[in-house]
Amino acid sequence: MSVFEEVESQVRSYCRGWPTVFTTAKQSTVIDESGKSYIDFFAGAGALNYGHNHPVLKKALLDYLAEDNIVHSLDMYTAAKRKFLSRFRDIILTPRGLDYKVQFPGPAGTNAVEAAIKLARKVTGRELIARFTNAFHGMTLGALALTGNAMKRGGAGVPLGHTVTLPYDHYLDGQMPDFLWMRRLLEDSGSGVGQPAAVIVETVQGEGGINVARAEWLRALADLCRENDILFIVDDIQMGCGRTGPFFSFEAAGIKPDIVCLSKSLSGNGLPMALTLFRPDLDIWEPGEHNGTFRGYNPAFVTAATALEEFWTDSTFSQGTSGKAGLVSDRLEQIVGEQAEHGLSTRGSGLARGLVFENPATAAATCAEAFNRGLLVESAGPEDEVVKLLPPLNTPDEQLKDGLSILSESVRIAIKETA
Question: Which top class of enzyme applies to this chain (predicted)?
């Protein structure tokens, strides 16, 4: 592995916790060059909801490439884009009563966020964006300004302004009624806080530590935005595409955001793809006002359209996710009970789950021990105190059980090592 140390930047991170060279992957299994298998409870940080190399998606991609179909097209019209847009409209938007324009902002989730906040500022003529404690929205400067993590913000090298921070659900531990602080800031002319152009929120904060917002809290936030003429943005980059059960994570709350950011598992096969969705009346862009070279990656359109057809024409896949979520939740509760004297807890929604440790060192040791035993999990939260589970949504139940057994043993050993 010397070439990685010699040539690649020190900024690399995941490989430090998983020091091996991976070669092949299928469904929820990843194999390294020594032949060792790993159960994947990471899923490309949520970019592989349908697993590695799903055969239906892979065949669609290979067939498309074999016929010399166009790969790169900027924002020109292509047959692949037409098929994706048609399927997305007919399978996802229309059945949910969502009337959104679709913008291809660039290939990554942070591009979707940048487009969302840029549009919000253009529409409203206001600069301020409200964001939440422990949020994560991306690493480009606009998105990073909306992110809570001090280490990541520190890497910017410039002031990250034009935002105001609000407490996420449960952040104040019930010390004041929901949104009282936000309402006071908006309504008090002496608060020093101007009216925001938009509020951006994750329904479940993944990188922030699997913090789950209650449905009633999200509805109240949407109402507050509407009452105060503030655009309501949901960042569904990690929790969308079925991670919490429904296609959009906000569906359970019965809300309709003004703007939605999607990426990660949207392409279905780990290919770069992102969308910014917004109400038609917000579509005031001038042609070319927000552009980029890789806005329309046709292979991603192909696999995305195929994934919609394969998984989202009925509720079977979503119901399967809910069933697996129950299995995982029950086993994590059991692990918490087995280690009750050590202050563990668990939280999550759908197949986004976390084990919360009082000692961040124990979380790190758990991840390391899990890797040694053939399980890929990462840590999250402001102090990396949460072991985060994001298995592919179609992981077989038996493999979920095997991975959770490895996790249980890893927790037991890590607690001993760090006690």
Answer: transferase
